[in-house]
Amino acid sequence: MRLLVVEDDAILRRQVVAGLRAAGYVVDAAADGVDAHHLGDSSPYDAVVLDLGLPQIDGLTVLRKWRAAARDMPVLILTARDGWHEKVAGIDAGADDYLSKPFHMEELLARLRALIRRAGGHASAELACGPLTLDTRQGRVAIDGRVLTLTSHEYRVLAYLMHHRDEVVSRSDLVEHIYAQDFDRDSNTVEVFIARLRKKLPPGLIETVRGLGYRLSAPR
Known about the structure:
four-stranded antiparallel β-sheet, Arc Repressor Mutant, subunit A, Rossmann fold, globular, five-stranded parallel β-sheet, alpha/beta
């Protein structure tokens, strides 16, 4: 899953990015509203962490521009502890949740997991597809309770497919969501990760839809 962190405080931005990457996410970052608007408008993100007090273009304006352009990724805004008016304005502008500064990384992670789950139509923190389960809190994948060992890229591919269960996901879509913006991307590697996953998963879970991409669904 690919996230965007928008925060002008360099120390806080680095801390949040490091925490999200340690949790297994692919993360891009922006320090001002101009870069934030460009990234959010041109790249697909599974969620955005957005500070409102940004230089050049404030976060509220960036959010309104995204929503006006039909960019519907979940957005969590960061506000000052006593900034209730910012929270109201942010929600009215299209934010999905808010978190007051200072905050604990564990709470930020929990809120982002919930936003991503809800965006995919999932209510539980544990996603399931037949005998396959993925615990989004622990980053743990299991088959009938037996925990699987996956590489970080295998996990990212599987997590994205699990969040979009029963949907056809194109190879280019997977590339956009498992690599950061500055990563040297090679769409052919997706086929490698899919092949590795098929060796570790029960037959039939990952289907190739010719000319379109891949679909994860429970065998009938």
